[in-house]
Amino acid sequence: MSKIAILTDSSSSIYNVDHNYENLFCIDLPCFIGDTIFNNFKQNGDVVFYDAVSKSDIVPKTSQPSVGESLAMYEHIKSLGYTNIIYFPISKELSGTYLNGFLAKEMVEDIQIDIVDTKTTVSILGGMVLEACRLTRLDYDCKAIIQKVLELRARTGYYVTLNNLTSLVKNGRLSNAKSILANLLKLKPVIRLTNEGTIVSLETVRTYKVAIKAIIQKMFLEVDEDKGVIHLAYTNNKNDLDYALKIIKERSPHIKVEVFTLPATIVAHLGLETIAVGYINYII
After folding, report:
1. Do 137 and 193 lie in a common domain?
2. Which helix (H) or strand (E) element contains residue 209?
């Protein structure tokens, strides 16, 4: 009889979610500030990294788990008696995590491993892996779980804005010329995580508050206000979180909103002055 483990990575924020799924495992995407490494997010959360970023002039960097680390996780899961692993890593367009997962897969025997291009990340990815865990309890097989989770992914969306473009530019996510122009004009980007798993800037607006309103408005064009759950994510910018919550609740007082902190691997690229809003439309 199959015993299915669900594996994801720390970009999913799953370490911040209370759950009782013993078959859910997470591998860290390490972050660096200079020579200092930040990982073990299940124990430390995100606050330690946030604090280090706020006190440093060094732009953080990230790395995917090595092939060896991926292999070690597979072997650990196998040692617990699992016959199957379904691995839901960050979008392959955003990280080499997906590829390294495949390279490690070739080195392990006696366990079936399926690796899914999730084309997403952050709490949306977390929602997908929680759904996968729920389906394992209903005795779905691996093929059916993957199909159902990918159907769920198609009913998601995610938008981001940030008040400072420095980290985004220095990490190569935005050209320096665009950054200089945007900073001179005090423009703020409205960014979307696309259905292909990439990050694109849709437009720029004049102020950060206008940008926060813009990402919420775009999200409301897509979320099902009866069956959808809004994901609102922030760092340590509580005032921005409260502002975004106020806009959402004025628009739709009864819609379900879940609040997350942005995972360290995302903050390393976007900085601390960031707000993100997404949704998952469930079928009831």
Report:
1. no
2. helix 208-220
